[in-house]
TrEMBL record:
This is RIB43A domain with coiled-coils 2. GO terms for biological process: flagellated sperm motility. Microtubule inner protein component of sperm flagellar doublet microtubules. It comes from the Eukaryota. Pfam families: RIB43A. The keyword GTP-binding does not apply. Keywords: Cell projection, Cilium, Coiled coil, Cytoplasm, Cytoskeleton, Flagellum. GO terms for cellular component: axonemal A tubule inner sheath; sperm flagellum. Residues 222-250 form a coiled coil. Belongs to the RIB43A family.
Length: 381
């Protein structure tokens, strides 16, 4: 690796850098062409820009409208809070006035029939009769009898005067209550009129603000349209100039003229410039086809060798399997013969044992035991 790096020339390094740069440019070009997300070739960029600009204008208008509505809602909420606070204060003051009126003019002891339900009536009560002229002496008390009512006229006149005073007092109280009610209604009406004037003023301000916003948006849209039209004219003019320059360069250049000399590289006759190369010559094509044929023949030869090798291995595997099968069969035959011989031996031993058993039974039946053992030992010998 060190010798290879030592033999590298500056020209080779420049060539490798140029090749890497061309590869990077080619990858960038493919990304611009084949990536559907970032590709702009074949698309209407002007229409896209116009859509984006219209969307931004629409969003700005919508945002201004929402802000206006939000300000209006905040203002209405503030007015509602003020009105509710005033209404609560009015209700509170009215309830306070009613309570004060009841405490001052409608106390329990000021009622006409309070003496009938007074809890301290017994403590305040006087004796049944203090004198002969006591007005509390009724008929049921049996303190004064018929013909003894000498103060009838004064008493009746006093009662009439008292009734008249009570009636006048009720009328005055009723007039005062009505006057207070009218005053409260006047204050409430005045407050409502002030609220209406404030709401009308706020509505006028809101209308003026909305008109100003609409005017500003209209002017902004108009300026944006004018600017867009001027930019489109400039872009179209620049595009026409660029197209004319590109067409002129292509017609005068070596790309469309297909000059084969333009692909010649400065690094040697065996190298070409990839972005200017128009194809190989017939001699180069014939050489490539010849090399391809040689590669095909070499591949066929290798395949044939591999096939022969596979066939040899298959034949060996079959032969080994056959040998193993024959060996297994031979072992099975040997085991079968051994089993057969063992069965014959066992059968003969069984027969001999059976005959010996029968003989022993006969000997036990016919001869004494000693003779039996003697004969048995002699036979065994």
């Amino acid at each position: 690796a060190a010798s290879v790096m030592a033999l590298a020339q500056p020209r080779d390094l420049e060539q490798s850098l140029a090749l890497g740069r061309r590869r990077h440019n080619e990858l960038c070009r493919q990304k611009r062409i084949f990536d559907a997300r970032s590709r702009i070739i074949g698309g209407d960029t002007e229409a896209w820009d116009l859509q984006v600009r219209d969307q931004k204008i629409k969003e700005a208008t919508e945002k201004a409208r929402h802000e206006t509505f939000a300000a209006e809602m905040r203002h209405n909420d503030k007015i509602t809070c003020i009105l509710e606070g005033r209404e609560r204060r009015d209700k509170k003051s009215l309830c306070k006035a009613i309570n004060e009126f009841q405490q001052h003019f409608q106390r329990p002891e000021m009622r006409r029939e309070f003496d009938l339900s007074d809890p301290l009536a017994l403590r305040k009560d006087l004796p049944a009769r203090q004198s002969d002229n006591d007005i509390r002496n009724t008929v049921s008390g049996m303190q004064r009898f018929m013909g003894e009512d000498l103060n009838f006229r004064e008493r009746k006149k006093f009662q009439e005067e008292q009734n008249r005073e009570w009636s006048l007092q009720q009328q005055r109280e009723w007039e005062d209550a009505r006057a207070q009610h009218r005053s409260a209604e006047g204050v409430c009406l005045k407050t409502r009129l002030q609220f209406d004037e404030t709401a009308k003023h706020l509505q006028n301000l809101e209308s003026a603000t909305r008109k100003a916003v609409c005017t500003a948006v209209k002017e902004f849209n108009k300026s944006q349209a004018t600017e867009s039209l001027e930019r489109k004219i400039r872009e179209k003019k620049q595009e026409q100039e660029d197209n004319l320059a590109e067409i002129s360069n292509l017609l005068r250049g070596d790309l469309l003229s297909e000059n084969p000399q333009q692909a010649a590289s400065s690094f040697g006759p065996h190298r070409v410039v990839p972005d200017r190369w128009k194809g190989m010559t017939q001699e180069q094509l014939e050489q490539i086809r010849l090399v391809q044929k040689q590669q095909v023949q070499e591949k066929l030869r290798l395949q044939e060798e591999e096939r022969q090798r596979d066939m040899d291995w298959d034949r060996r595997r079959v032969q080994m399997a056959r040998t193993a099968l024959l060996s297994e069969r031979q072992q099975q035959r040997q085991r079968r013969d051994l089993r057969r011989a063992l069965d014959c031996s066992n059968l003969s031993l069984a027969k001999e044992q059976l005959m010996q058993k029968k003989y022993m039974e006969e000997v036990c039946t016919n001869q004494p035991t000693k003779d039996y053992f003697t004969q048995f030992n002699t036979r065994s010998r």
